[in-house]
């Protein structure tokens, strides 16, 4: 592949992989090569055929982000391919609203329960808890009501008691939220969350004004649980590649905390299975996978 026109080579190869019938075009006719014709892709992307031809041939070197967005949609590019398209053009994609960031794939839901002794949960870019395993649900049981971890940290009356390292924890979370706000500038959940907390929380407002950006990686967390006592965990964060912006957090208990955490999760499962007077099992904010899930 010649370095001089890697963008054009990628566009040609991607165009050849699009089945005409998938975009509402007939397969027949005088098609000497597979995939879409240049003129067809130009129409689908809403650009002139001459401009698209120059882009593929390497005679146009400065496409806009809006144009690449349109071409990526016309080519049915997945997130990885779309990111690659932008990088070949010397740009970085702006990730806008996408419902897939609020949906947890069934395979990921099953994976959560593959950590029987660890607290595992999935976060949206706005730090909404989309799904938990039973251990994480038990660990987060002191927080009824909101299922957004940023709101829990800054607005729940028990947050500073349950999290003795509250200052460093909130600092890490706000820095990571700042990063997500840059990646997803049009995300309505992030925008509403930031607006509310800047208005209502002086502590959040101070941290947000610092403008420090840092993603979540590995961190040590201490939790003073009202039933299990002090639990110490080391958290590792993983990006969910098929839902950009989602993160899987897995908290492994430190020696001395594993038994307390296991006993807490077992007791929580028993309580959740017992129906109250109304005849339905009780359910707390973190007792089950939350958010929209793919069928």
Task: Please give a quick description of this structure.
Helix content is 43%, strand content 13%. The chain has helices spanning 6-16, 38-45, 49-57, 65-74, 79-88, 106-112, 134-139, 149-155, 159-162, 166-183, 188-200, 202-209, 258-273, and strands at 103-104, 119-123, 129-132, 218-225, 229-239, 247-253, 292-293. Mean pLDDT is 84; it is low at 288-295.
Key words describing this protein structure:
295 residues, alpha+beta, 434 Repressor (Amino-terminal Domain), Beta-Lactamase, 2 domains, five-stranded antiparallel beta sheet, two-stranded parallel sheet, 43% helix, elongated, disordered C terminus, DNA binding, Lambda_DNA-bd_dom_sf, MLTR_LBD
Helices and strands in order:
Elements lengths: L5 H11 L21 H8 L3 H9 L7 H10 L4 H10 L14 E2 L1 H7 L6 E5 L5 E4 L1 H6 L9 H7 L3 H4 L3 H18 L4 H13 L1 H8 L8 E8 L3 E11 L7 E7 L4 H16 L18 E2 L2
Parallel strand pairs: 1-7
Antiparallel strand pairs: 2-3, 2-6, 4-5, 5-6
Helix pairs in contact: 2-3, 2-4, 4-5, 11-12
Structural features, described:
- This protein has 295 residues and is α+β, with helices and mostly antiparallel strands.
- It has two domains: 86 residues, 434 Repressor (Amino-terminal Domain); 195 residues, Beta-Lactamase, CATH 3.30.450.180.
- Helices cover 43% and strands 13% of the residues.
- The chain has 13 helices and seven strands.
- Strands 3-2-6-5-4 form a five-stranded antiparallel sheet. A two-stranded parallel sheet has the order 1-7.
- A hairpin with a 7-residue loop joins strand 5 and strand 6.
- The C terminus is likely disordered.
């Amino acid at each position: 592949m010649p370095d001089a026109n890697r963008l054009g080579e990628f566009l040609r190869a991607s165009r050849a992989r699009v089945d005409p019938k998938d975009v509402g075009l007939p397969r027949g006719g005088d098609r000497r090569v597979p995939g879409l014709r240049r003129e067809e892709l130009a129409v689908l992307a809403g650009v002139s055929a001459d401009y698209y031809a120059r882009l593929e041939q390497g005679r146009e070197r400065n496409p806009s982000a809006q144009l690449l967005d349109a071409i990526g949609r016309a080519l049915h590019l997945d997130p990885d391919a779309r990111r690659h398209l932008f990088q070949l053009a010397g740009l970085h994609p702006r990730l806008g609203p996408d419902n897939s960031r609020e949906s947890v794939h069934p395979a990921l839901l099953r994976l959560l329960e593959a950590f029987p002794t660890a607290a595992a949960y999935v976060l949206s870019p706005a730090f909404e808890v989309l799904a938990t395993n039973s251990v994480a649900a038990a660990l987060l049981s002191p927080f009824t009501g909101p299922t957004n971890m940023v709101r829990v940290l800054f607005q729940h009356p028990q947050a500073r008691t349950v999290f003795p390292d509250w200052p460093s924890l909130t600092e890490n979370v706000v820095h990571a939220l700042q990063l997500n706000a840059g990646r997803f500038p049009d995300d309505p959940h992030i925008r509403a969350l930031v607006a509310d907390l800047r208005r209502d929380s002086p502590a959040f407002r101070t941290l947000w004004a610092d403008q420090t950006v840092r993603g979540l990686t590995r961190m040590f967390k201490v939790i003073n649980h009202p039933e299990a006592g002090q639990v110490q965990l080391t958290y590792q964060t993983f990006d969910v590649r098929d839902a950009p912006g989602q993160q899987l957090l897995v908290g492994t208990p430190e020696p001395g905390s594993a038994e307390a955490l296991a006993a807490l999760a077992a007791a929580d499962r028993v309580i959740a299975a017992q129906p109250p007077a109304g005849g339905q099992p009780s359910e707390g904010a973190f007792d089950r996978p939350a958010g929209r899930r793919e069928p």
